[in-house]
Amino acid sequence: MARFLTEKMQVIRPLLPDATRPFWSVMIPTYKPRADYLEETLKSVLQQDPGPGQMQIEVVDDGSPNGAPVELVRRLADDRVSVHREPANNGLAGIWNRCIERARGEWVHILHQDDIVLPGFYDHLYRGIGCNPQAGMAFCRFAISDANGHWKELAPLERSTPGVLDGWLERVATDCRVQCPAVVVRRATYEQLGGFRADLVSVLDIEMWVRIAANFPVFYEPQILAFFRRHGTNQSVMDERTGANMQDMARAIEVWKDYFPAHCREQLEQQSRRYWSGIALMLAQIFFSNEDVVACTSQLRAAKTLWNHGRHRSRRLRLEAKVLLHRVLGERAISAMREVRRRIRPA
User: What's the confidence (pLDDT) of residue 325?
Assistant: First the structure.
């Protein structure tokens, strides 16, 4: 097994032996949570609660200015859900690692304050883990919803039946295939590989899934049992506007290329860079179409950092030319040029 622990990865210390240890730790990190979203999140877990002997449920607040959401938690769950408040803000990697440290269960589920697990999530993954004790991580197929909880997109189907995934390292490193609410990780996996990297700010979760895939089998449940809520105050959405997500991805690829087997390392690194550069170009085009030139430019810079060859370079240069025209001539001139092209295009 590769040696991954570096100064950028927090050491996760093993727990003392405890015969009363629960199977699950559902850890919910919060920071200035929206009350209605957090209520939905908590209810989705409590509806599946097998009891404190089998499941630890804890809200871990990352120093919210107005305090931890104690009243909301007490109203919903009385003392069934514990609340811990950090004295200062730790940042994303810091609070996720605090969740792992505080987790007493054998398996850890870091469930974000605005995401949902559907009925059967814990039961299905429990059965799958039991049949595949060598797995270091397990996840289910998931949906992506809008701010109001309406499903907008489904994750790819990795396999049609529950089981350990073949070729998962290549897939998870070269595509966007997993979201946090769908994932549970054996605490011993974190103990062996370390916590989330403090030098990554946007794609630290993906780096972790790649790191785990390089070391452990990963179990997959094909039923849709979780959904990731995408809305304007998501950190991931804000990072898209600044380009921080894809600049962070370039740093992450530099890290995880060393996780690949030597015989295919260069191929997988290039495949990963091409894929994520394509995502950056797609986001840039969407931002340009919405007349958000600043966000478009941020993603174009990230695309260049990731992969600046062939069709990707040509696409970037064409869009950069449009951005330049937009700045010089304004949107009305660009719209007029589009209309001229439409009129002269052969029927």
Answer: 82
Largest Cα–Cα distance in the chain?
Answer: 77
Rounded-to-integer distance, Cα 18 and Cα 24, Å: 14
pTM listed for this prediction: 0.90
CA neighbor of 62 nearest in space, from 36, 90, 21, 35: 90
Close Cβ partners of 230 (under 8 Å, ≥ 6 residues apart): 144, 145, 146, 147, 152, 236, 237
The C-alpha atoms of residue 236 and residue 226 are separated, in whole angstroms, by: 18
**CA–CA separation, 302 and 99 (whole Å):** 31
Q: Which tens digit of pLDDT belongs to each residue from 232-262?
A: 666 677 888 888 899 999 999 999 999 999 9
Structure tokens given for 346 = 């052969």
Taking alpha carbons only, the member of 275, 276, 255, 260 closest to residue 170 is 260
- Please name each of the domains of the chain with its CATH number: 24-231 (3.90.550.10), 237-339 (no CATH)
